[in-house]
Specification:
Layout (H helix, E strand, L loop, with lengths): L2 H37 L4 H16 L2 H16 L5 H29 L3 H9 L4 H31 L11 H12 L3 H27 L6
Helix pairs in contact: 1-2, 1-4, 1-7, 1-8, 2-4, 3-4, 4-6, 5-6, 6-8, 7-8
């Protein structure tokens, strides 16, 4: 098999990896914010529940969480597994896992804003919602961008874990090609795909940071 054909097959697999990446961000970014607010809540049961959720998600392997979400409906509730079950289990596992990490990043950013800014906004007549959206959030985004970028780059690479429950993404295709072609070239091409895409992620994050550079600490 020639290199161009292998690259085309890996590119098709990478499209699946990109779908996992996109759906994870769409679900985990807003969920992470909700978990962060719950974690900072003055309602103790809610805060404790959020802390437990974060602890479990960060303290257990993502691969194990995928297995649990995939198999529990069948073994516990008797729900029949379908071809789509693997895909849904992967997306749900990635979302709930990354939401926990994003929640802690959000929390650290929000709590880093001096209390005096909240008080000044209150004196100026801003509501709590206006204070958060117009004053706090832009500064939080700037402060958490390096940490968020690291997590997003990790997410790109973690999409390869989907192979563990049979989702055919790029790493799975690469493994199949290595076995059939008795060559390490597919792994090298797959690595190039991951690296180039992560360069793009880093570039976009850098552009966002530059646009927010007018917010000074």
């Amino acid at each position: 098999m020639d290199t161009l054909t292998m690259t085309g097959m890996l590119a098709e697999g990478f499209l699946v990896s990109l779908q996992i990446f996109a759906f994870t961000l769409l679900g985990s970014l807003p969920l992470g914010m909700l978990v962060a607010f719950a974690r900072m809540s003055r309602v103790k049961p809610l805060a404790l529940l959020a802390r437990l959720y974060i602890s479990i998600m960060r303290g257990t392997p993502l691969m194990l969480q995928m297995f649990a979400i995939y198999f529990v409906p069948y073994y516990v509730f008797g729900i029949r597994l379908t071809t789509d079950s693997k895909w849904y289990a992967t997306i749900v596992a990635f979302i709930v896992n990354y939401a926990a990490y994003f929640a802690e990043i959000y929390r650290s950013g929000i709590q880093s804003i001096p209390r005096g800014q909240h008080e000044a906004a209150e004196v100026l007549g801003y509501s709590k919602a206006q204070t958060f959206v117009r004053i706090v959030l832009p500064q939080v985004v700037k402060r958490i961008m390096p940490s968020m970028t690291n997590e997003v780059i990790t997410l790109v690479k973690d999409t390869s874990l989907a192979f563990s429950i049979g989702v055919i993404e790029m790493f799975t295709v690469a493994k199949q090609l290595v076995a059939s072609q008795v060559s390490m070239l597919p792994f090298a091409i797959a690595a190039a795909f991951y690296w180039i895409f992560n360069l793009l992620v880093d570039f976009v994050a850098g552009q966002i940071e530059r646009k927010l550079s007018y917010y000074h600490d």
